[in-house]
Amino acid sequence: MAEPMRTPGGGPRSLRRIVIVGGGTAGWMTAAALAHALRGNCRIDLVESEEIGSIGVGEATIPPIKLFNRSLGIDENAFVAATQGTFKLGIEFVDWTRKEQRYFHPFGQFGAEFDAVPLHHYWLRERARGDATPLQEYAMAWVAARNGKFERPLADRQRVQSTYDYAYHFDAALYAKYLRAYAEQRGVLRSEGKLVDVALRADDGFIQSVTLGSGAMLEGDLFIDCSGFRGLLIEGALQTGYEDWQHWLPCDRAVAVPCTHGCDPTPYTRATAHAAGWQWRIPLQHRMGNGHVYCSRFIGDDEAAQVLLDHLEGTPLAEPRFLRFSAGRRKQFWNRNCVAIGLAAGFMEPLESTSIHLIQSAVTRLLALFPDRDFDPITAQEFNRITHVEYERIRDFLILHYHATQRDDAPLWRYTRSMPIPHTLQYKIDHFRRHGRLVAENLELFQNPNWLAILTGQEVWPERYDPLVDLRNDVDAPRMLGSLRRVIAEAVQAMPTHRQYIERHCRARS
Ligand code: FAD
User: Fold this and answer.
1) In 10 A of CB 479, how many CB atoms?
2) Is the pTM value of this prediction over 0.90?
3) Site residues for ligand 1, CB cut-off 6 Å
4) Could you read off the pLDDT of 355-379 as tens digits, one per residue?
5) Nearest-atom index, ligand 1, CA of 62
């Protein structure tokens, strides 16, 4: 009897060949992670088209990306230098709650815990007694960001310098290039060309092969759709369906333009609300990334571009570039032998920089639920279950920014503040409003400190604080809060500036 075909080091049912369609951030992150994990025992092809290109935006990230890079053995300083990167301690939101109001969503926690009852309940009591100190003054990330300081946090949990976290801003095209070199060194085979056809197996509708314009055909066991908004495989070939969330997240367009720096790069992203959307400002080493995300129901493209140009801090470095999207997600992320990752899987606007993270978490989940050629449907079912929850809770978090606003100066804000919201979000708001409690679940990306930042930043005030606070009269909260502010201020004072830190450790070569 003939021996079953084996891949080098693989078992009889192991995948022999994976085809990734698309070479944007999603394609190359996926290729790099799979190449690292599969150790050359499964052929990996990646198809991309220079003529089509990639979306080219996606410059702000959130802290878990450090784990992704670390798991690949990427040196942080080399990576930041290669991508014109800077450091990000959080996001400053301007004019979201009402005009002239601003708040910060810091990475990390609010203060150091000094009691079993969360710190913000003590803060709420002091606030009720007349102490006007904003909660963010207890977040080291904010105090450092406000002062333009940066340094990596300490691991020692006794020190206040362990209470913050950070992520990066980088040039997305350079990040994809960096990961492409990494993946190709580990055996990923890149094919240049336009995909023109997808062949399905007659018996079960699984994808059998993809064909390029040149006539080249790539067969595979597993296909990963990283083709961007087009979703060539997951939608084009498999017609999986899309769940539209535009009634909750009505912004459907963006216009992006880079500009020169007006000042030293700040260690944070800024999101400024405008009448029909909001503007991002992302400082890189060599330029500032800017974009206006807007709702086409309430503003035209030309006017949206003008709003963006009117609010730039430096000189534009390119013509404005327009992008269209529709908030939502695929009905299934994993359908038959196809897994959609990146924009092909779904999109929620970049308000909290979650898209690159969703790529990372999809790849991590794919590896945790890695299939063999039997493709047991229970594996795809679990992948889809967790990914649905992940998308929906992020969706709720984003909706909160729009819904909990006092603005009524423009149709967008009047719509979002009065629109019906998902019951899962209403549940969280009710808990906070009634008792000051935060009820994020484990599977959620954004945890209690993140919800606390946005709820208090958007001025959703609780009716009461935790009743335990008044029963624990041995806790001298005013003194503890005061000393926390002092310790944070001293620690920040001793930090280098963001500019100095970059110069010392990771300055880009050009
Ligand atoms: P793409 O970059 O579109 O790549 C698609 C790939 O498929 C390309 O290589 C293309 O050549 C290839 N392709 C397509 N069709 C074919 C074909 N027929 N044949 C061959 N190849 C094909 N995310 C963040 O985390 N932070 C941010 O700050 C952020 N800002 C954003 C701002 C805006 C306005 C938008 C729209 C998105 C933003 N994102 C952000 C999301 C982020 O840009 C994407 O998640 C990320 O770039 C991944 O994109 P992708 O690789 O899925 O798709």
Assistant:
1) 10
2) yes
3) 22-27, 47-49, 52-55, 57-61, 172, 194-195, 226-228, 230, 232, 254, 291, 323, 325, 342-344, 350, 353, 355-356
4) 999 999 999 999 999 999 999 999 9
5) 25
